[in-house]
Each structure stands twice: as structure tokens, then as C-alpha cells.
Amino acid sequence: MRRTAAFATLALAGALAPEARAARPMVTDDARIVDPKACQVESWVRRNRDSTEMWALPACNPTGQFELTFGGARIEEHGENAFTDNVVQAKTILKPLESNGWGVGLAVGAARHLKRESANGWPGDAYFYVPVSVSFADDAWVVHVNAGAVNRRDLGQTLVTWGLGNEIRLRDDLYFIPEIFRSERGRPFYQVGFRYWVVKDRLQIDATYGNRAVSDTAQRWFSIGLRVLSPPFLP
Predict the structure, then answer these.
(1) Going by DSSP bridges, is the β-strand pair 141-152/125-136 parallel, antiparallel, or unpaired?
(2) Cα angle vertex 128, ends 48, 209, to 5°?
(3) What does the pLDDT read at residue 16?
(4) What is the DSSP string of 5-70?
(5) 4 pLDDT more than 50
(6) Is the pLDDT of residue 5 over 80?
(7) Do residues 48 and 16 make contact, with C-beta atoms less than 8 angstroms apart?
(8) pLDDT digits over 182-197, tens only?
(9) In which element (H, E) is residue 202 found?
(10) N-term to C-term CA, the chain
């Protein structure tokens, strides 16, 4: 399950089409991956001003070393409903995150935007990012920093992407998630939301509000998500 994202995902994602994601609902990614031999599915509905996005991003860690994600989005806009985005990504951890310590990873992937007028086929927009996470107060506050780049094939340009996010534990099963990130040209985006564990480490729901910084309501969005994690089961 991979959340961000969207960050490079947004970035990678034009405006939130995950090319980099941390666990839902964040776009800024974390220095963690799914447990070895386990899988997860992140799914969410995002309501924009003039469209509704429905995302699903299954991910597995078959070797214990790499989290592999493949998924996409279906968008309803102006009365039409069609698949619009595909994302494929591999992520590994270079230094595991420890309580009151820090961790770092590396993610690479590609995002294909089917409704684009040009450069809408594979290999899509290639991207990479480095997620760094720092834990404070026994994981009551975890800060995530991302830095990366995405090759926008339709623009013929490589854009720098970044993100700064926070996980703030309000109680054992409830987290406040504020973040700011830049995934495309122009002002950065921000997002705030809550993450709630219905079943600890297995079933999670979330809700967010986001917009472009110093903007009116034209680019705002609301989202509701569901994240399901499995126990190890792969051979």
C-alpha cells in the first residue's frame, strides 16, 4: 500500500496521481515498505472541483528487499468515465527507520497519463525520489522529507520534486497528517487529514482536504481512503 505520490506522484501525478506516495493519505513518502512476504492495497476517492478520481494501488514485498507497486486511476469528468493513469514503482529501504532515529529509502517508477494529448504511452514519466524519515518522542511525531525529480515527457523537461510531511499521533489509533509538497511547476500544494486504524496494522481509513498554496478553491480536493494490509503469505 503505498501511499503520497502523488508527490513525485503528484509530481508524479500531475496533481496527485501517485508517482511517489507514502502511506495514505500522504503524498510525501516515508522511509518504510510493506512487511516481507506481505501485500497491501491502498484505495481512495478524491473529489476535485470538476471531477472525481478513484484510485487503487496494490503493492507487495515478495523478497523482503523491495516493495513493488502497480495500479492506477479511473476518473469521472464531464459525464465521462475512463481509466486515466497507470503507475508502476519499486521502492527499497537503505537504512531502516527506528524509534527516535532516522531512516532513508529510494524509489523509482513511471507514471502513464492516458488522457494526455502527447507522450501518453509507456514508459511514461520516469521519476525517482529519496524519502527520509525522522522519529521523535517514541514515534509520537515522525517527520518525512522527500527530494527527487520527474521527467515530464509531454513538456520535454525534468522537474525537481519535494515534500515535507508529518505524522502526529493523537492517540494509539488516530494520527493527524499535515504536509506540503511540490510536484509540478508553480506554487506547492498542501494537504491536511486524519488517519484512523480500525484494526491495528491491518485496516485503516483516512480523510483529507488539500489545495494549492495561496490559492482560491479552484484546485482544492477532498479525499476518503481505505488501506488494507495483509500478514506475510507469499512463498
Answers:
(1) antiparallel
(2) 25
(3) 38
(4) -THHHHBTBTTT--SS--STT-SS--S--PPTT-EEEEEEEEE-SSEEEEEEEEEE-SSSSEEEEE
(5) no
(6) no
(7) no
(8) 988 889 999 999 999 9
(9) none
(10) 19
Burial of 217 by CB count in 10 Å (0-12 exposed, 13-18 middle, 19+ buried)? exposed
Q: Which residue has the cell 515527457?
A: 153
Split at pLDDT 50, 70, 90, the class of 14 is: very low
Q: How far apart are CA 40 and CA 101, in angstroms?
A: 25
What is the mean pLDDT of the segment spanning 114-123?
88
Grid coordinates representing 196 are 484512523
Cell 519499486 -> residue: 90
C-alpha cell at 166: 508529518
d(C-alpha 210, C-alpha 81), whole Å:
23
Q: Please state the pTM of the whole predicted model.
A: 0.88
